[in-house]
Write a structure and sequence with these properties.
Strands 2-1-3-4 form a four-stranded antiparallel beta sheet, with helices on one face. It contains three helices and six strands. It has helices at 17-29, 33-42, 79-96; strands at residues 4-10, 64-71, 102-107, 110-111, 113-115, 120-122. The protein has one domain (4-122): 2-Layer Sandwich (Alpha-Beta Plaits).
Length: 125
Amino acid sequence: MSVSIYYTATRKQKLTKEEQEAIHQFIIDYSVDEEIEKYMNTGEGYNWTSFYVYDNEDPTEADVIFEGATQLPDNSEDAMWDGIQHWSALLSQIRSVVPEAKWHVHVDDHELVWDEEHLEYDLSK
């Protein structure tokens, strides 16, 4: 059974070119492609999947500006927790460059709580 992290941001204004570029760079910075390749070639490490963003041209609702889902690694005791930490850190960075959006981030039925003071998801809750 796979578990995924889901993310949606809504707002009336579409993403600006600058926001799109920043998001793209963050996704590159947090890429796990090398880890995926290592796992595929050697069986070592986590069974990551790449961060996935749905097509902005076909949103699930009219005011959705960013959305996607990424399967969490699950091949060891620590894999899923490390995956949640990694992808929530990326989503915190993305959220920081998309002002005035309403975010919904969850792992299956568990909502991730945003910490406004530290500008990150509080994974202790």
